[in-house]
Amino acid sequence: MGGIMELVITPLLLAVLLAYILAPPVRYLEKQGLSRSTAILTIYVFFASLLLLVCLNLFPSLIKELEELGRILPEYTERLMLNLEDLEGRLQRFSIPHGVRGALDENIRALQGMLGQRLERLALFLLSAVGRIMGLLLVPLFTFYFLRDSDSLKKWLLLRLPPSFRDSMEQTLADVSKTLGAYLRGIIIVSLAVGVMLYLGLLILGVQFSLFLALLNTLLNVVPYFGPLIGAIPVIIIAFLQSPALAWKATLLMIIVQQVESQLIAPRVFGYELGFHPLVVVIALLLGGIYLGFFGLVFIVPLTAVFIIFYKHFSPLAKRALAEQKNGKKWF
User: Fold this and answer.
1) pLDDT at res. 41
2) Residue 192's Cα: distance from chain center in Å?
3) Distance between CA 195 and CA 211 in Å, rounded?
4) How many domains are contained in the chain?
5) 56-61: long-range contacts (C-beta < 8 A, 24 or more apart)?
6) Is 115 within the bounds of a domain?
7) CB contact set of 15 (below 8 Å; sequence gap of 6+)
8) Contacts of 222 (CB under 8 A, 6+ apart)
9) Which structural domain range is residue 112 located in?
10) Is residue 50 situated within a structural domain?
11) Is the C-alpha dihedral spanning 284, 287, 291, 292 positive or negative?
12) Which of 118, 148, 178 is the last residue of a domain?
């Protein structure tokens, strides 16, 4: 199941989301006289050139940072263990009840073991990510066909519905396209802005691996609410291992960046564009994370938006159909 998820389902969902993002520029180029296929290929060439330019400037620095991180990771792990042992020694000097002290000691030792295991698995995770990236190479191909054949797919779907449902489905698909497109474009812009702010801030503060940490936070920022909190942990840990004072500065930087992010994303994207309460987002994220892991954290918000849009349009129709069925009428 995991292989199917990585090689088929995830690329398909990413392609659908990417098609929603790219649909407006494709339509714009069509209005300028280009065919749809030519418009799609033009956008592909533009973004491929932009990506190549970014990679040529950032990739060497990123590889250098990852190599340095791999080299220094054992030393960082050892220093973390020493700091935790020092904390355990300091706690033993206080007159803490025996039961409380035992619980604290047990939790510190558990934290030591967990940190050691997580840091050792980091390199394996980075290597396994290469395999996932291979599956993502299918995304541009899937996206091309979704963009090119979107009208045909929409017509095919509508023709297979009862006539009484077609108008509602057409309006539903239009709302899904408008809402998801605005949400996805907004979150990408905000995530990139967060990454740039964080990179500049970490660079000014002198935190090691600033480019890697900024890119990591840019990717995690697509997960509402929890992403920035998860991304802050490695930033603060690396800053602390350089200097406790630097850790406080890095923490302040993360708070400022998260405040900017929350002011931009929470009220404007999640509230205005998706049209449902932030509590719904949190519950959806918890359920998506529990049952689908990171895949669920990334996709659950737009999928929830789609579900709510379908419910809004079709629940009145379903109620009407049930009412007329009780009266012995055939609705469609």
Assistant:
1) 93
2) 12
3) 9
4) 2
5) 58/211, 61/211
6) yes
7) 138, 139, 140, 141, 142, 143, 146
8) 187, 188, 191, 298
9) 1-148
10) yes
11) positive
12) 148
Q: How far apart, in whole angstroms, are the C-alpha atoms of residue 216 and residue 195?
A: 8
- Three-state SS for the chain is CHHHHHHHHHHHHHHHHHHHHHHHHHHHHHHCCCCHHHHHHHHHHHHHHHHHHHHHHHHHHHHHHHHHHHHHHHHHHHHHHHHHHHHHHHHHHCCCCHHHHHHHHHHHHHHHHHHHHHHHHHHHHHHHHHHHHHHHCCHHHHHHHHHHCHHHHHHHHHHCCCHHHHHHHHHHHHHHHHHHHHHHHHHHHHHHHHHHHHHHHHHHHCCCCHHHHHHHHHHHCCCCCHHHHHHHHHHHHHHHHHCHHHHHHHHHHHHHHHHHHHHHHHHHHHHHHCCCCHHHHHHHHHHHHHHHHHHHHHHHHHHHHHHHHHHHHHHHHHHHHHHHHHCCCCCC
Whether the pLDDT of residue 134 is over 70: the answer is no
Task: Name 58's Cβ contacts closer than 8 Å, sequence gap at least 6.
Answer: 211
> In this structure, are 265 and 210 located in the same domain?
yes
List, for residues 294-319, the tens digit of each pLDDT value. 677 777 877 888 888 888 877 776 67
Position with higher pLDDT, 104 vs 227: 227
pLDDT, tens only, 155-203 = 888 888 777 777 878 888 888 887 777 778 778 888 888 899 999 999 9
What is the structure's pLDDT at 6? 56
Handedness of CA 315, 318, 319, 320 (dihedral sign): positive
Same domain, 71 and 131: yes
Same domain, 292 and 248: yes
The answer for residues whose C-beta is within 8 angstroms of residue 147's C-beta and 6 or more apart is: 19, 22, 23, 26, 36, 40
The closest of 319, 329, 224 to 280, measured between CA atoms, is 224
Q: Are residues 200 and 260 in the same domain?
A: yes
Instruction: Give the predicted TM-score (pTM) of the model.
Output: 0.71
